[in-house]
Description:
Elements: H1 9-22, H2 24-48, H3 59-66, H4 70-95, H5 107-127, H6 129-138, H7 142-148, H8 153-164, H9 168-187, H10 190-193, H11 200-232, H12 237-240
Helix pairs in contact: 1-9, 1-11, 2-4, 2-11, 4-5, 4-7, 4-11, 5-6, 5-7, 6-9, 7-8, 9-11
Amino acid sequence: MIQDGELTFSDVVQGTLSVVMRNVQPFALYLALMTLIGAGLEWGAPALLGQSDIASSDFEAFFEFVGLGAGLVEIVVFIILVIAQYALWQSVMHNEQLGNNYADARYLAFAGQSILAVIGTGFAMLLLIIPGIILASRWSLAPALLIGNNEGAIDALGKSWDAVRGNTVPVALAYTAGAVGLSLVSYLFYPAAGFQGSSSVMSLVITIASHLVSNVGTVLLVAIGVYLFSVFFSSNDAITEVFE
């Protein structure tokens, strides 16, 4: 078991990438499915329904166009996200032989925990960016505790907070490195975005790319959470030996 101050930035990065490499199939499936769903809702659905200005449309315009109201569709999208992300966490933890709660589907608890985490980190980000990063880092393995150890949503947040205590800096640095990297990749698409109005194909490419980058972020969050769970809560020492 890793003690306070023993975890390094290199450990977190290598451990996270090791989880990704061992779970290419579920991660690739999630990326493909959620990217297609997201791009389909944002770009494809208005096209199928005959909206004339496809390239400049966005979620809200589409919701208004079909008369559903943004609130209803956002709820549907949130449900899809909860189910998909829960399945991803559960699949990766099962592959890593972590936890013992694979049979029970606790979607409501997972959704509640996600909402609490988003509200907490979002509020911290409004104050200053650094507190938000720290909060996200300290809560990073809460979903793994909820799914793998059958912890309550709030209890899992608390145990995650305590577990990462003493190793917050390397985890926060890994979070920051991932966020900066994905932001730089997204920035590469900005020049091309200016040509969306003249090409529906370019619009589709930009839409798919933006959703893909966002979903890669989710994959990295799951991977780092599963890695930290293996470090702080797994009794299988072999799992934590990722630096050989």
